[in-house]
Write a sequence for this structure.
């Protein structure tokens, strides 16, 4: 490799990771410096109150695996705890709305966080830098402040009432820390360009840095503070949840698209739906289609719906339910779906009674050929912040199915299905693309489209992540505002319901690196505030 590259949605975090690469750190070191900083400069998207998965490829060490540090349901949770409080499922299938939003905002919304244990394990097993050194940029931004960016403010003020979920502004107001950190004294939310300071978070990160690892969070004094706070506020997380938290290490699952070998995250991650979509689309001559044409959008939509139906029927924590992803990724299964699409059969996605989601991503390669795709998140922010700790907890309980007996139903200690699909594409034995995205249910279809853009349409990486996208995870075709209106009219004439997004760049936020002739080039999706930095 002639250079290293890092790309993510937050420029401050990318710079922190790039500086680690410049100082001789490897891709894992850079990803961790970036991840810690993301938790400060985009605190509703990720942080030590969240969870995620890291796809690691280190050829000289013989390492290629997925480090899973997903959130786990509280040990006191039960399958039927909320069955009498169901209102409906979100249109995109990402979550479930309950009475009073009890699973979406506040202490009952929180699952046991895994991010800090994941970061510590990644550094110990794959990294080379000092723990405190990697946390230092995050501490600096929390203590000294950073400038509020456009996407952060857009997310804070976005009206989510159509889906029935609590608005982020209400979550920011939920705690005394939130009201102090995110609002002016007159009650107005801080604006784009304002400086945001979080001294409580800086002190917490300093404590973690001094402790040398995650033990303080899961077994030590911070664990005690978390457990006492949850007990006082009616939450379900206790000392036992933190002490018994375990992550996992698994092999990636594999697919193939037009001769490219593709590795991604197994269940409960969403690598298999993304790969299934690619396998269905390989049955069609995508490169011969006009990008964004009626034919292209219709076939994509029908393939996405079939992928979604399979995901909804089978996705869950494989420690609790069997997920037959081998069958779902088979060529026979893809060919069967393709025959149905050619026959113009319209698939139906059913939901309970009737989006931009809260995650972030990092793609990194270094000069030694190591590659990392890291997707981490709060699932959605809960609004809960323990006094004095500064960080917000995840709100992941709303993503479990409140109906017992389903693959994604609640169970104590269970990992909820994740939409993350951190992915590495290989040409022969060498990585050619490192890719992933935030965006909930939109991640798998968006990552797949960007891969098709590079493979079928031969687009450069920036053009591939910027090209107009569509998603089909319900019975409505969601299109970005750059899909031609003539295409929308033709789709409606075929009987489809179409929803046009007002966003120029919509549906997940893909951040990718493409490697050609030993040179890596990164691209940040323009819908977020990110950047790609290459290091010679």
């Amino acid at each position: 490799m002639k250079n290293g590259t890092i790309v993510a949605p937050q420029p401050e975090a990318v710079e922190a990771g790039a500086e680690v690469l410049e100082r001789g750190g490897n891709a894992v070191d850079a990803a961790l410096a970036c991840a810690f900083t993301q938790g400060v400069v985009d605190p509703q998207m990720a942080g030590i109150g969240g969870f995620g998965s890291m796809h690691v490829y280190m050829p000289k060490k013989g390492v290629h695996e997925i480090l899973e540090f997903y959130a786990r349901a509280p040990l006191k949770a039960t399958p039927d705890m909320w069955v009498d409080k169901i209102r409906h499922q979100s249109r995109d299938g990402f979550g479930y709305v309950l009475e009073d939003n009890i699973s979406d905002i506040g202490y009952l919304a929180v699952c046991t966080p895994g991010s800090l244990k994941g970061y510590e394990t990644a550094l110990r097993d794959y990294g080379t830098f000092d723990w405190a050194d990697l946390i230092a940029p995050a501490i600096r931004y929390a203590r000294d402040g950073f400038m509020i960016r456009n996407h952060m403010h857009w997310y804070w003020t976005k009206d989510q009432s159509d889906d029935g979920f609590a608005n982020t502004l209400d979550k920011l107001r939920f705690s005394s820390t939130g009201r102090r950190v995110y609002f002016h004294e007159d009650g107005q939310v801080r604006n784009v360009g304002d400086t945001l300071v979080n001294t409580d978070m800086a002190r917490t990160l300093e404590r973690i840095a001094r402790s040398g690892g995650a033990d303080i969070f899961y077994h030590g004094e911070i664990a005690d503070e978390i457990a006492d706070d949850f007990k006082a506020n009616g939450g379900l997380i206790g000392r036992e949840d933190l002490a018994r938290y375990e992550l996992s290490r698994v092999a990636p699952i594999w697919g193939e698209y037009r001769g490219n070998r593709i590795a991604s995250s197994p269940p409960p991650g969403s690598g298999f739906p993304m790969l299934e979509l690619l396998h269905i689309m390989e049955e069609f001559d995508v490169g011969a289609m006009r990008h964004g044409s009626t034919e292209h959008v219709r076939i994509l939509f029908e393939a996405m719906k079939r992928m979604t139906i399979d995901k909804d029927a089978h996705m869950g924590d494989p420690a609790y339910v069997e997920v037959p992803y081998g069958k779902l990724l088979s060529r026979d299964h893809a060919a069967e779906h393709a025959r149905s699409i050619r026959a113009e059969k319209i698939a139906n996605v059913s939901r309970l009674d009737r989006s931009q989601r809260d995650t972030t991503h990092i793609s990194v390669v270094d000069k030694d050929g190591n590659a990392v795709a890291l997707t981490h998140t709060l699932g959605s922010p809960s609004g809960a912040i323990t006094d004095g700790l500064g960080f917000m907890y995840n709100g992941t309980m709303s993503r479990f199915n409140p109906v017992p007996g389903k693959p994604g139903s609640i169970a104590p200690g269970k990992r909820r299905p994740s939409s993350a699909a951190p992915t590495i594409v290989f040409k022969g034995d060498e990585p050619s693309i490192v890719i992933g995205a935030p965006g909930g249910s939109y991640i798998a279809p968006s990552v797949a489209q960007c891969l098709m853009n590079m493979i079928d349409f031969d687009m450069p990486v920036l053009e591939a992540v910027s090209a107009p996208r569509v998603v089909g995870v319900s019975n409505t075709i969601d299109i970005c505002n750059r899909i031609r209106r003539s295409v929308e009219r033709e789709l409606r004439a075929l009987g489809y319901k179409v929803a046009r997004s007002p966003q120029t760049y919509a549906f997940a936020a893909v951040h990718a690196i493409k490697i050609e002739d030993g040179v890596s080039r990164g691209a940040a999706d323009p819908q977020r505030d990110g950047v790609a930095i290459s290091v010679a």
